[in-house]
């Protein structure tokens, strides 16, 4: 199930407008809201963990040995800001037991249930709580993603600001009456205070001052053939050994300039994909 992005500027415009405009966008009380996790999508088919394109995720047997036979949809996740570490763990075809002990499977849906999402969410909670290890203890690494029902848009905006200020990705809004679907749906909304995108590195510029002798910025090209420089977001180690030309990076930005260039673009990470 893929989400439709809802720009935060549209949300804020609605927040400061009349109630009619707010309800033209969405009615907050119709949704269950959760934090958007910075993880890797993973589908449990009852026997294996799979990526969103169906490739096998090579987790240790102990990780999923006590998972239910019921298919699950969720994300592998460590904590905020740990996507790169997670990617290295998940991409390894020879699973590292010690590293996988830091990983959680955060489940947010039941693909084979025909119930509306509000009911599926309760079914999911019951199912996860029933799972036990060989010592009859709860599976700490198998968790359901907490969803909340909010009373008004002001609370939603406040929660989004709190998540964003603590390096969170944003919020997900799932319509309570939505049925599970494998494609994109307008009943699942993704809300962020910023935009993320990807581009390919095509060149470097040397740094100045304290970055003399290191990479100062990278030139990138987007899928729409826009080229521009990104010079912020890199740490010293990345400037000494920058991502390779031809690699895909993820960057974050806040709107566009008059020339259509992403404003305040900053490097987030090299975008390694478990499906690549």
From TrEMBL:
Cofactor: a divalent metal cation
Gene Ontology MF term list: ATP binding; DNA ligase (ATP) activity
Keyword annotations: DNA damage, DNA repair, DNA replication, Ligase
Superkingdom, natural source: Bacteria
InterPro entries to which the protein is assigned, alphabetical: DNA_ligase_ATP-dep_cent, DNA_ligase_OB, NA-bd_OB-fold, NAD_dep_DNA_ligaseB
DNA ligase OB-like domain segment(s): 206-271
Stored CDD domains: Adenylation_kDNA_ligase_like, OBF_kDNA_ligase_like
Gene3D superfamilies: 3.30.1490.70, DNA ligase/mRNA capping enzyme, Nucleic acid-binding proteins
Domain ATP-dependent DNA ligase family profile intervals: 61-192
GO biological process terms held by the UniProt record: DNA recombination; DNA repair; DNA replication
Catalyzed chemical reaction(s): ATP + (deoxyribonucleotide)n-3'-hydroxyl + 5'-phospho-(deoxyribonucleotide)m = (deoxyribonucleotide)n+m + AMP + diphosphate
Name listed for the protein in its UniProt record: DNA ligase
């Amino acid at each position: 199930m893929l989400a439709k992005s809802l720009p935060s500027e549209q949300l804020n415009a609605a927040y400061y407008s009349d109630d009619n405009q707010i309800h033209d966008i969405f009615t907050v009380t119709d949704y269950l809201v959760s934090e958007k996790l910075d993880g890797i999508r993973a589908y449990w088919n009852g026997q294996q963990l799979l990526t969103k394109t169906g490739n096998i995720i090579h987790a240790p047997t102990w990780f999923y040995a006590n998972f239910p036979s019921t298919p699950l949809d969720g994300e592998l996740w460590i904590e905020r800001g740990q996507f790169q570490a997670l990617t290295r763990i998940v991409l390894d075809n020879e699973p590292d037991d010690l590293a996988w002990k830091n990983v959680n499977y955060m489940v947010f849906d039941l693909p084979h249930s025909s119930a509306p999402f509000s009911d599926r969410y309760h079914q999911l909670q019951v199912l996860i709580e029933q799972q036990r290890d060989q010592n009859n203890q709860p599976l700490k690494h198998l968790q359901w993603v907490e969803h909340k029902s909010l009373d008004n848009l002001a609370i939603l905006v406040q929660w989004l600001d709190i998540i964003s200020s603590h390096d969170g990705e944003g919020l997900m809004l799932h319509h309570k009456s939505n049925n599970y679907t494998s494609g994109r749906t307008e009943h699942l909304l993704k809300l962020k205070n910023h935009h993320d995108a990807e581009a390919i590195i095509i060149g470097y510029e040397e740094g100045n001052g304290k970055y003399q002798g290191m990479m100062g910025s990278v030139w990138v090209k987007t899928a729409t053939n826009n080229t521009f420089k990104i010079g912020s977001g890199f740490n010293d180690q990345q400037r000494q050994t920058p991502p390779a030309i031809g690699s895909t990076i993820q960057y974050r930005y806040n709107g566009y300039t008059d020339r259509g260039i992403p404003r305040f673009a900053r490097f987030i990470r090299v975008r390694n994909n478990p499906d690549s």
